[in-house]
Amino acid sequence: MGARSGDVTYDGRALIINGTRRLLFSGSIHYPRSPPKKWPYLIAKAKEGGLDYKFRGRLNLVRFIKQVQARGLYVSLRIGPFIESEWKYGGLPFWLHDVPGIVFRSDNEAFKAGACLQTHTISSSINLAIPCQINKGVTEGLFASQGGPIIITQNENEYENVEAAFGGRGPSYVRWAASMAVGLRTGVPWMMCKQSDAPDPVINTCNGMNCGKTFLGPNSPKKPALWTENWTQRFQVYGEDPRPRSAEDIAFAVALFIGKKNGSFVSAGYGERTAEPVQYLNRSQQWEASTEESNIISKASFVAKGLLEQMSTTKDVTDYLWCTTSYNQRSQQDGQITLHVDSLARVLHVLVNGELLGTVHGKNGGEPPVFDKPILLKEGQNNISLLSVMVGLPDSGEKSFAGIQHVRIQGTGNLSRDLTYELWRSVISRSHIMHQPVVSYPKKPLIWYKTRFDAPQGTDPVALNLTNMGKGEVWINGESIGRYWASFKAPSGKPSQSLYHVPRSFLKPSNNLLLLFEEMGGDPRSITVDAISVARVCGHACLGKEKCSIPVSASRFRGVPCPGITKPLLVVAECS
User: Contact at 8 Å (CB) between 487 and 469?
Assistant: First the structure.
């Protein structure tokens, strides 16, 4: 049943659209993770998959919703303003961090003003519904009450998980958020996920893998039971293997239909995908390189007594912050010297007098990185440079601390010196001009590489194969396609991700610029440009027949690779 104008209400059984109770199968698309030219394809695939059907560039919410409507689908708009979604800062703009006296997601006037502004902006852009984000939805007539496809909207996200930490300001914030949302009078219901005390008339809903077992139900007999996220798997992080679920488990709704994986573009897969290299970037003359320098003095550098908190310094401009100081070694009589560094970033590179001494990193949910190793110092002044690396911002918590915490020199006897509060020069690392052709490829980290390549012919999806690289980020014609960390192996011994999607809308027919920053010594000559094809044994084999059989033989599969191993076969039946 397609989307059309009408009234949306609800009772204890379901959402009621145009006077009819509806059982809806839903899925979510993180639309800013894909370029606008790909949205029609993603929406079409979402509908084929069984769904019941900044405002510029990738963030053009109005355009996205209108394309959904053009496909005859409804929209469940989970507006936030806090969305989490493993998105940096949970979708909140970083400038809120610097507002004096602000406490995120609480009954705090500074935060409520910012939350209201963000919600109203979306609203005025599509003329939606929160005095701050809703005007946008209302102006464009996108709510069902105006003839649009939006049938329900969500305020906040899984707040009950952290509500107790705010004391009395938690419950009062929930009441304020609900009142603000309902007061926008969008003409469609509002919901809060994982919020058992959602005030009437806001519907409390469930997120999770097994809501049929874990959800206690709506907090009023007048509200329907809604499942806003049925996770296809736990979101994958670097150093982990994927943990997919069976099709039976996710036959209710899909979160995410198009989603996230380590910060790169990811789309749903249909059939068996094959990555075929179509271009090798293995010639030395193809690449230019530039070493990342720690001693650059620029407008992006600061000198302070003590180490700076990283996120407050970089302000979401970059993952990288250089911290450099000097240490005077009086003589070699101090014996063996050990450098100890505690960090609350994700990765730490340690250099002394320009030479890399080591790299340490943490693990998602585990201990932060600690460097504690003997170092060799020369007599006189020595430069100690630390490159502190984040992997994006955390998805919640404005009070989170990131960066280097403590630095200490320890020698034999009584020699011990705390360098934490010495003079440090901090440099925000952005980008550098490539100037030097690569002659040899030592496994040296902290190098910028660039090359150019032509787009593969045809229409198959394109990906970069980064299996043998270390860690860093890649840009194609100025567009980031994501961070990679191929050297952080999962328990299977493979990278968590090795193929990185390059949207064809990013590509020109020829002379495409590939720029990457390699932190951990990967060899760019190992990179290939791959075309991704979906293998099909046959198609439309049983059209017009009530019964049919499909012979399966080795010839249909072009031989028998890996004989003696049982192989799966996917059969899709469509009945018209």
Answer: yes
